[in-house]
């Protein structure tokens, strides 16, 4: 496998010039480690003398679904604590007798559970975290389970609650003890971040209440409403930690580290689990747009401008971290750039 570093750097530099994002950090590697990495642009356009760095902290947004929820559910599954195909109501008293009780963990992981498509937590349930939890777990389904693939934040929120129920630990503690600490991901944590760490955090969207860009506080409103910790979003991370996570995923048996999940969960997840339904999905991961099944390249994105790719067949992983949300919510420019980055990283 090859890659084109010069073209990657030119592509990402162009993204800065075109104001797709203020700056970007990237890396690619294989099961042995990082093969190439780089940075471009600045941390904050208001401070043009401060460059983006490889240790810049990013709001991971929906990468939280992989780093905290997918990894924790995998640990519980490999340990024999969770049956992915058992209706939740048969073992989880909080949802017994409610519509969610007929849903399985597998359906949540493939976004086929039929749960509502939008979070709308404050509008529906108020601001008390316990009342939000109760409301989410008792909510009506949007459609029958297994009928369609529809991406929804609620799937990860519910699975986060399930992981807490089965482990007896808050999600942040569970992810730390089962995944982040064992893999040496010492800079990965839920926010809000302490001031010294926030200083090297990439700012995201302008907060209308304070007239400043969010920095060290999750952009995702649901995460902020729930105190910073939930299955939807809220994790902050750095390039090296994501590299360690993805490197482990390519060869867990050969790794000096041992996370709670291993090769069985990884292989099970990086396989299409939605049958003939479209768009095709594995477990939370999905095939990278523009790739074939033969290429075996999987991806997960974050709304703030983050993304990570992995291909067991090609023995390759890649990470692209940006704070594109500083400028806009428009997904178009970054979507095109991400596809080109993936092509250049997995040549």
Automatic annotation (TrEMBL):
Which key words tag this protein in UniProt?
A: Hydrolase
InterPro entries attached here?
Answer: Beta-lactam-related, Beta-lactam/transpept-like, Diverse_Enzym_Activities
Work out whether the entry's keyword set contains Translocase: no
GO molecular-function term, one example from the UniProt record = hydrolase activity
Q: Which Gene3D superfamilies match?
A: DD-peptidase/beta-lactamase superfamily (3.40.710.10)
Return any one Pfam family short name.
Beta-lactamase
Please give the superkingdom of this protein's source: Bacteria
Q: Which residues form the Beta-lactamase-related domain?
A: 9-336
Report what the protein is called: Esterase
Which species does the entry assign this protein to? Streptomyces griseoviridis
């Amino acid at each position: 496998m090859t890659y084109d570093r010069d073209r990657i750097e030119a592509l990402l530099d162009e993204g800065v010039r075109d104001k797709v994002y203020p700056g970007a950090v990237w890396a690619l590697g294989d099961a042995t480690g990082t093969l190439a990495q780089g940075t471009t642009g600045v941390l904050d356009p208001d401070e043009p003398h401060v460059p983006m760095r490889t240790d810049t902290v990013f709001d991971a947004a929906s990468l939280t679904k992989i780093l905290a929820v997918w990894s924790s559910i995998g640990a519980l599954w490999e340990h024999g604590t969770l049956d992915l195909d058992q209706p939740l109501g048969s073992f989880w008293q909080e949802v017994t007798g409610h519509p969610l009780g007929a849903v399985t963990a597998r359906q949540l992981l493939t976004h086929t559970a039929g749960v509502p498509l939008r979070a709308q937590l404050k509008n529906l349930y108020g601001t008390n975290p316990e009342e939000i939890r109760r409301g989410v777990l008792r909510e009506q389904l949007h459609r029958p389970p297994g009928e369609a693939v529809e991406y929804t934040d609620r799937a990860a929120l519910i699975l986060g609650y399930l992981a807490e129920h089965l482990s007896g630990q808050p999600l942040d503690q569970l992810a730390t003890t089962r995944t982040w600490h064992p893999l040496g991901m010492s800079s990965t944590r839920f926010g809000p971040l302490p001031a010294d760490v926030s200083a090297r955090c990439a700012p995201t969207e302008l907060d209308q209440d304070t007239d400043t860009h969010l920095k060290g506080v999750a952009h995702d409103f649901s995460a902020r409403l729930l105190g910073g910790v939930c299955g939807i979003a809220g994790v902050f991370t750095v390039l090296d930690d994501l590299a360690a996570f993805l490197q482990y995923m390519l060869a867990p048996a050969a790794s000096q580290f041992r996370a709670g999940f291993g090769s069985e969960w990884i292989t099970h997840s990086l396989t299409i689990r939605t049958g003939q339904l479209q768009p095709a999905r594995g477990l939370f991961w999905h095939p990278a747009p523009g790739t074939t099944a033969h290429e075996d390249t999987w991806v997960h994105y974050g709304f703030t401008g983050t993304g990570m790719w992995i291909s067991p067949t090609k023995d390759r992983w890649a990470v692209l971290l940006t704070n594109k949300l500083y400028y806009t919510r428009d997904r178009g420019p970054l979507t095109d750039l991400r596809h080109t980055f993936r092509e250049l990283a997995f040549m």
